[in-house]
Amino acid sequence: MKPIRVLQFAFIVGAAMLVYSFVATAQDGELRKSCLSLCALTPNYVGENKAAPDIRLKDLKGVERQLSDLRGKTVVLEFWTTTCTACRQQMPALAEMAEIIKNDDRFAVLTVAVDDNLAAVQQMLMQTTRKPDPFPVLLDPESQFVLNRYGTKLFPETWLIDPEGVIRARFDGPRDWSTATAIDLLQSISRGESCSMELQGGIAVGRAATVCEKSNAQM
Fold first, then answer.
1. Closest Cα partner for 114 from 156, 137, 87, 143?
2. Which of 40, 135, 188, 198 fits as disulfide partner to 193, beta carbons 3.0 to 4.6 Å?
3. Domain ranges of the chain
4. pLDDT digits (tens, 9 = 90+) for 111-135
5. pTM exceeds cut of 0.85
6. Is residue 125 within 8 Å of 134, Cβ to Cβ?
7. Nearest to residue 78, comparing CAs of 3, 129, 17?
8. In sequence order, what DSSP letters do the residues of 132-162 get, joined into one string?
């Protein structure tokens, strides 16, 4: 091969590698942007292919409500019980999140209490949030939906559902939902941004898993 052709070939290869590196960096940046808040909140489930089972229960005023009525919104669905200490600890932050997003039609908070004592539920809300109705509360005393449809046994458990009714993430145990990170995650889901990651046996797999590992290592 003549020297000039060698130089041309080397230039083409170098240019191709530079373009590939630029595209990969840009894609990694977009992935990082989509996944950063999700990674920070350490989910116990991540996915994009499971529809949220519908829920139809009565609220504290006896009015029947359905989860599917919130289609088109990003929904924070929380399961809790009055006998759960962690639920009690998380209530103020959840109430603060509900207050932050209450005037934004893109979002909704819906909670389900697995209790048959209405007075105990109302008392816990007042004690922890100082409000009688900081967010909608449905009653499922027999776990008709919480256990039978969602398989929930430990509380609190929080599910994030996108506007299409698809479960995007589940969080076991308390989180601080009043933080900017939590709000960023809701906005990301609302925009339809995707985080290419799944959890298999508690281990993150997929391209975004590396992004999460890097993000968590820097915290």
1. 143
2. 188
3. 43-202
4. 999 999 999 999 999 999 999 999 9
5. no
6. yes
7. 129
8. S-SS-EEE-TT-TTTTTTT---SS-EEEEE-
* Residues in the chain with pLDDT values less than 70: 1-34, 196-219
Cβ neighbours for 188, distance < 8 A, ≥ 6 positions apart: 33, 34, 37, 38
**In the block, which residue shows the tokens 């759960």?**
84
Q: Under a CB-based contact definition with an 8 Å cutoff, are residues 54 and 150 in contact?
A: no
Indicate the fold that domain 43-202 takes in CATH.
Glutaredoxin (3.40.30)
- Other CB atoms within a 10 A radius of the CB of residue 76 amount to 25
Whether 141 contacts 106, CB under 8 Å: no
Is residue 71 within 8 Å of residue 163, measured between CB atoms? yes
Q: CA 28, CA 30: separation in Å to the nearest integer? A: 5
d(CA 147, CA 52): 13
- Alpha-carbon distance of 151 to 74, in angstroms, equals 21
User: Residues 155-189: pLDDT tens digits?
Assistant: 999 999 999 999 999 999 999 999 999 999 999 99
How far apart are the C-alpha atoms of 170 and 77, rounded to whole Å? 9
